[in-house]
Amino acid sequence: MFVHIGGLVLLIAVPIAWPVRLLLGTLLGVGLYRSLRIHAWRLGPSAIDAIEISGEGLVSVRFAGRDEWYASQITSRVVHRWLTLLTLKIESRRWPVNLVLAADAVEPEPFRRWRVALKLHRLTA
Question: How many structural domains are present in the chain?
Answer without folding.
Answer: 2
